[in-house]
């Protein structure tokens, strides 16, 4: 599955985090496994 | 990474969406990117390491912020209201610098223009407001500002109809954070340039532009509350979220605001220049619970600045540096990736373990909610008793006649310090019986904390963002009564 613009992907094995700044068709992987989208806890807007 | 990436992403993903300005003639994210590149081209070859700006809120502000990042120099917004000699002195402290001019916007930069990648480079220099000492230029690095954005926001998460009205000036950390965070989520900024804040103008602009989000400093919210109470036609039906911060919010004004905006989500944001803006948030549900609950733990939280944002830790210490427990007041220490603490030409306020010593006095409740009483050095010590000016000010502000109140300690032979207040009156109030005001305060917080002296003035000295200039209040009162 293509990676999504502006999403953060994390590795389950290590602490690596990737922010997608240009979307594309590739798949992000780390430690041999596909990285998963990190769900940011939505905070109320403060500014 | 470079903070320019925020605009690069927004322009790539939401290019045509309006980024900054009115619906009629705002700049799109793509136009803003072109302007930022154009500004970077103007900086090239000047030898400058800082790009200063002395303008009020206008399209040149976000263009210069991102343009400096594109050029690989620090953005240094200065308080354009200062006298020329003081501005010259500030410029002298950040040399080599160039100053951006509004016509720089006309230069559209080449689309090949890339930005450098130096995450530890100083992205923004902000002069602290200097309410209790000389202003210092605080350094915020790219990665510190981005830590705040990435830890608390989701890219392009704003709906196309969303608009945030921004009235905090560009030289305040909240003005920088407003540009970065609204660009990242894709929310249009409606700037209010006003040299003098007008609640009526703000309310009319917000209504006409369909504003959904607003950020205010407490004195501005106080004036908006007064204007709305006086004129029922002044309403902003599209408003969904209102955040406030930048100075102590008095619970008495907040209660009135909550009743005037029953459908709006209120957020209290606490942060420092040195922490890349917000480090703690009191959310909408906390506000409602505080307003409607009878439980003292919850009702007290209208006076709290909330809980730390992700990636931030708080610690309270006593004078010897020992960590204190719940409800024990001491100095507030803050740690996290968004914390700066370095200054141009002076020592860092961050200790070896990464804790920023804020100089603010406060405590945590049993669930970790942060309470901030204000600057530790503002505490009045009268006859051995520690008195926080905020408590006295809030008692004064509950009085119908009083609009702004500032409380300071004056030297006193007998007690060490005496309590003095400077107040201004609400619109339409011509005079007030000061003995009755003292009685009013005494009934609420007791005689020990009642001002021994109250001076009525037209305008209490404040910074552009409504922080009381205590040094100035104290100087004026001392001059008058010595």
Number of helices of chain A: 0
| Average pLDDT rating of chain B | 92
Our count of helices of chain B gives 14
Total number of β-strand segments of chain A?
5
Give Rg of chain B in angstroms: 22 Å
Structure overview:
The complex is a heterodimer of chains A (47) and B (482). Chain A is mainly beta and 47 residues long. Chain A contains no helices and 5 strands. In chain A, the strands form 2 sheets. In chain A, strands 2-1-5 form a 3-stranded antiparallel β-sheet, with no helix packed on it. Chain A starts with 7 loop residues before the first strand and ends in a 10-residue tail after the last strand. Chain B has helices spanning 4-14, 29-43, 60-71, 84-93, 142-152, 173-185, 199-208, 218-230, 251-260, 284-292, 296-299, 389-397, 434-445, 470-481, and strands at residues 18-20, 27-28, 50-53, 74-77, 97-99, 122-127, 137-141, 163-166, 188-191, 213-216, 241-244, 265-272, 277-282, 307-308, 312-317, 330-336, 342-343, 356-364, 370-375, 380-382, 385-387, 402-412, 416-425, 453-456. Chain B is globular, with a radius of gyration of 22 Å. The mean pLDDT of chain B is 92. Chains A and B meet through loops of A and helix 1, helix 5, helix 6, strand 12 and strand 13 of B.
Considering the chains and any ligands shown, give keywords for the structure.
heterodimer; A: 47 residues; three-stranded antiparallel β-sheet; two-stranded antiparallel sheet; 0% helix; flat; B: 482 residues; alpha/beta; 31% helix
Question: How would you sum up this structure in a few lines?
Answer:
The complex is a heterodimer of chains A (47) and B (482). With 47 residues, chain A is mostly beta strands.
What's the SSE blueprint?
The complex is a heterodimer of chains A (47) and B (482).
Chain A: E1 8-10, E2 17-19, E3 29-30, E4 33-34, E5 36-37
Antiparallel strand pairs in A: 1-2, 1-5, 3-4
Chain B: H1 4-14, E1 18-20, E2 27-28, H2 29-43, E3 50-53, H3 60-71, E4 74-77, H4 84-93, E5 97-99, E6 122-127, E7 137-141, H5 142-152, E8 163-166, H6 173-185, E9 188-191, H7 199-208, E10 213-216, H8 218-230, E11 241-244, H9 251-260, E12 265-272, E13 277-282, H10 284-292, H11 296-299, E14 307-308, E15 312-317, E16 330-336, E17 342-343, E18 356-364, E19 370-375, E20 380-382, E21 385-387, H12 389-397, E22 402-412, E23 416-425, H13 434-445, E24 453-456, H14 470-481
């Amino acid at each position: 599955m293509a990676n999504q613009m502006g999403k953060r992907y994390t590795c389950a094995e290590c602490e690596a985090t990737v922010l997608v700044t240009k979307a594309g068709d590739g798949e992000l992987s780390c430690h041999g496994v596909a990285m998963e989208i990190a769900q940011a806890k939505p905070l109320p807007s403060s500014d | 990474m470079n903070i320019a990436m925020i605009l690069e992403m927004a322009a790539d993903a939401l290019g045509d969406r309006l980024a900054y300005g009115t619906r009629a003639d705002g700049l799109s994210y793509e136009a803003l990117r072109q302007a930022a590149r154009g500004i970077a081209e103007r900086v090239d070859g000047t030898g400058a390491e800082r790009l200063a700006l002395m303008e009020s809120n206008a399209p040149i502000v976000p263009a210069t912020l991102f343009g400096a990042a594109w050029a690989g120099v620090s953005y240094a917004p200065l308080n354009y209201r200062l006298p020329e000699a003081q501005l010259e002195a500030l410029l002298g402290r950040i040399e080599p610098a160039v100053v951006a001019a509004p016509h720089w916007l006309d230069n559209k930069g080449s689309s090949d223009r890339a930005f450098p990648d130096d995450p530890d480079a100083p992205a923004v220099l902000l002069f602290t407001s200097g309410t209790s000492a000389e202003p210092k230029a605080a350094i915020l690095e790219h990665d510190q500002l981005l830590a705040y954005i990435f830890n608390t926001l989701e890219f392009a998460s704003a709906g196309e109809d969303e608009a945030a009205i921004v009235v905090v000036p560009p030289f305040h950390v909240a003005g920088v954070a407003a540009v970065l965070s609204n660009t990242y989520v894709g929310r249009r900024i409606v700037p209010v340039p006003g040299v003098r804040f007008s609640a009526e103008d703000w309310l009319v602009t917000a209504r006409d532009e369909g504003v959904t989000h607003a950020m205010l400093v407490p004195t501005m919210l106080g004036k908006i509350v007064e204007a709305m109470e006086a004129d029922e036609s002044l309403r902003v039906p599209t408003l969904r979220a209102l955040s406030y911060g930048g100075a102590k919010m008095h619970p008495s004004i907040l209660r009135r605001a909550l009743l005037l905006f029953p459908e709006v989500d209120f957020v209290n944001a606490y942060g420092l220049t040195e922490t890349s803006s917000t480090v703690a948030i009191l959310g909408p549900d906390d506000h409602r619970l505080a307003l409607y609950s009878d439980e003292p733990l919850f009702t007290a939280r209208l006076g709290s600045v909330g809980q730390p944002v992700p990636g931030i830790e708080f610690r309270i210490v006593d004078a010897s540096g020992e960590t204190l427990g719940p409800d024990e007041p001491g100095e507030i220490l803050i740690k996290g990736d968004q914390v700066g603490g370095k200054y141009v030409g002076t020592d860092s306020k961050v200790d070896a373990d990464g804790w920023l010593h804020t100089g603010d006095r406060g405590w945590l409740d049993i669930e970790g909610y942060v309470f901030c009483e204000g600057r530790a050095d503002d505490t009045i010590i009268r006859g051995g008793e520690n008195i926080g000016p905020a408590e006295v000010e809030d008692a004064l502000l509950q009085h119908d006649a009083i609009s702004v109140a500032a409380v300071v300690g004056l030297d006193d032979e007998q007690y060490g310090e005496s309590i003095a207040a400077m107040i201004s009156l609400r619109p339409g109030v011509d005079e007030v019986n000061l003995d009755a005001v003292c009685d009013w305060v005494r009934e609420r917080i007791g005689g020990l904390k009642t001002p021994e002296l109250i001076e009525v003035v037209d305008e209490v000295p404040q910074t552009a963002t409504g922080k009381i200039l205590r040094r100035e209040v104290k100087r004026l009162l001392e001059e008058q009564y010595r």
